[in-house]
Amino acid sequence: MTSGAPIWKRMRACRRACDVSALDEVLAAVAAAMHENAWRWYLFGAQAATLWGRPRLTADVDITAEIPFESLDSFVEAMKRRGFTLRFDDREFVNRTRVFPFLHDRTGVPLDVVLAGPGLEEEFLDRAINVQFEGTAVPVISPEDLIVTKVLSGRAKDVEDVRGVLRERAGSLDIGRIRRTLHLLEEALAQSDLLMIFETELGKLR
Known about the structure:
Layout: H1 7-17, H2 20-37, E1 40-44, H3 45-52, E2 61-66, H4 72-81, E3 84-86, H5 91-97, E4 99-104, E5 110-115, H6 120-127, E6 129-133, E7 136-140, H7 143-153, H8 156-169, H9 175-189, H10 194-203
Parallel strand pairs: 2-5
Antiparallel strand pairs: 1-2, 3-4, 4-5, 6-7
Helix pairs in contact: 1-3, 2-4, 3-8, 7-8, 7-9, 8-10
């Protein structure tokens, strides 16, 4: 197995795989909005997969945020003050998907904000790891929890991301925690293939 690559190497790979200045600007704006309102959040998706695993070309940014229901209007206004516009303003869509689809006006970078639910996403928030992006502290989903989300999504590109994180960081991952979380998800969702997907990818390293 390979040992986990240091953060600075992962950051360098991330900066090769995306528009560096745009990403830094977007994350700084998000961090400012979240910090001034004491809202918890973390970066996940392709940007986190690039950080913890292998570079993947993408301009999109995905975060999960813990926003109280009564603060949703304040949240949208706070994001607007930081230079974001809703790509479409449809609260029914938000209620159905729990996603706010923003666009960063100056850079044109799409930002999807997923509203955190109780339970597992609260644990992900607790375990998020702060990473410096050009002086901005950005909470990033842990590599173990990223693997869980990617296995759960199950698309070919998500499984490829799982493979990349395992190859780069298998030596430092809490494999037991990944297995326990996937097992709990299988029971909760009455789904039997999550652990199989993970074990298959883990087995390819041996």
